[in-house]
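During the no-cost extension, the postdoctoral fellow (Dr. R.K.) reprocessed legacy sequence entries with the updated structure-token encoder. One reprocessed record is reproduced below for audit purposes.
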Amino acid sequence: MEDNDLLKVRLEKIAALKAAGVDLYPNDVKPQNTTAQIMAQFGDTDSETLAQLTQKFSIAGRLMAVRSFGKAAFVKIQDRKGQMQCYIAKNILSEQDFFIFKKLDIGDIIYISGKLFRTKTNELTVEVESLRLMAKSIHPLPEKWHGLTDIETRYRQRHLDLISSPAVKEIFYRRSLIIKLMRQFMDTHDFLEVETPMMQPRAGGAVARPFKTHHNALDQELYLRIAPELYLKRLVTGGLERVYEINRNFRNEGISTFHNPEFTMMEFYWSYATYEDLMSFTEELFGFIAKNIFEGLKFTYQGTEIDMTPPWRRLTVKDALLQIAGMDPADLTDSTKAIAFARKAGCDAKETDPLGKILMAIFDEVVEKKLVQPTFVTQYPVAVSPLSRRSNTDPEFVDRFELYISGREIANAFSELNDPADQRDRFVQQLKEREAGDDEAHEMDEDYIRALEYGMPPTAGEGIGIDRLIMLFTDSASIRDVILFPLLRTKQE
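Re-encoded structure tokens follow.
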């Protein structure tokens, strides 16, 4: 009822403005300043100096607060850079402008221009000499003293979340900065940024369930990419020895505080490098970002200090299972013992799964959440690494690492498998697992094998989850806090 009453009042104001010939949505005014520019230039200027200025300033933004005293008022205007106080007085504005002001509501977009002065409380303020309505807000904003508190409403109506919560806006400014820093770092190291298809004839490059679509003209089934890996490695084969892509991937999986079906990654490939080179490279990249964001290598995430000072901890899968999960050495080589341990730990593992897959189910359930400080977990089983190069010391494991920080995977990397015969055998094994009911297993990709048969140089590749990285660097608890429009169930009206 209260909302209906507020809406009725706003509609009456709109009718009055229209009757007076006021354009509710003009497009002929350009502000010359932002709140941040004015504060940066004059934030420390004293009253006497301001009084001598002849310059006029103009800003445009959303009306966020009004303290009215009848014939005068102090208002707050919010633009993309911040807020600024403005002083409005009937004896300064034209009759038309003051009429418009009296019909304004919180949330309206307005333009003002005038001179600067300081109030008795020493706040830098614009004395408004002219005012324009730029866009009328029909619906009231969330109440300013608590903003949007309902989490689902925040995600569904991100525009209101951004308007009412400066801290939310800052997250997405920082997100943009982090991606710029990643590009800067990669470009400095002579990597070429490329683009590869988002619609692919087969879902490859990762073990995941894809989204399927259909191309009408070709009458062909296509998949939204789960990873750009196989296309990027084709480029390496073609002689682009250092490539990277900042890409959107799509995986038909569950939604959680660190999973969204549509997400952003940076994936890159480096010829004549190994997964060990990538560990040092990753330490350097993350350190570069941290120094630019925090001016140091230590910061707090969800109440815990994270220390990115290299070298980071390195731990094999076997050692992690022994030291952290508490498994016995015999459990690591016996499927029956491993599945018994998995059952006790509440893991989602099947007796028919390969031993390596059972071990990784235990790792995911027991170990992962305990890896708080930056940790490279290395030497993964072949069974869960269909595209990785086998280890020279133990062919049942591969030259691979995953990076864990604050209990979640941030990056995945390995020395690439460039032996086409071994790659075919791995794909055949994946097909057997698909036939046994694993719809996340990798498909056969003859075209990719053919590309390998032309010779791909020894290469290392890595994928970094940008959304999770931004969670870390913005102290965000949920991946939905760092994605402007996370996927939500359609709301039933």
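The chain has a mean pLDDT of 94. The first strand starts at residue 57 and ends at 68. The remaining legacy entries will be reprocessed before the final report is submitted.
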